Amino acid sequence: QVQLVESGGGSVQTGGSLRLSCAASGLTFSDYSMAWFRQAPGTKREFIAGISWSGSRESYADSMKGRSTISRDNAKNTVYLQMNSLKPEDTAVYYCAAVEEVTNWAPSSMGYWGQGTQVNVSK
């Protein structure tokens, strides 16, 4: 049974930083590309960042490019998202996802999802 468990969310002020973690189990982690998405109330789930199985390739959405860094530790079966210079519009539930073969970073292309972690950014 595949499980993705996010942690590290919370409440910060504008300009603050958070580091999200996603611990994976039930799959061969190094076979999967990993991604972070977010979803604010009333909006569609949005791609934030993705990383290849080896960690050699990263992709970012414009919304957080330059303010976020995705990384992974295959020995720990964990993917991270470092977020800096946070803004109120970054408030959302953040999800990690796993996909075995990346064709694109659309939510519908992902194979497995975590339950999400809430990030609140206040003014």
Polypeptide structure, described:
This protein is mainly beta and 123 residues long. It is built from no helices and eleven strands. The chain has strands at 3-7, 10-13, 18-25, 33-39, 46-51, 58-60, 68-73, 78-83, 92-99, 112-113, 117-122. The strands form two sheets. Strands 2, 4, 5, 6, 9, 10 and 11 form a seven-stranded mixed β-sheet that branches. Strands 1-3-8-7 form a four-stranded antiparallel β-sheet, with no helix packed on it.
Task: Provide a quick synopsis of the model.
With about 120 residues, this protein is mainly beta.
Tell me the total number of β-strands.
Answer: 11
Q: Helical stretch count? A: 0
Query: How helical, in percent, are the residues?
Result: under 10%
Give the strand content: over 45%
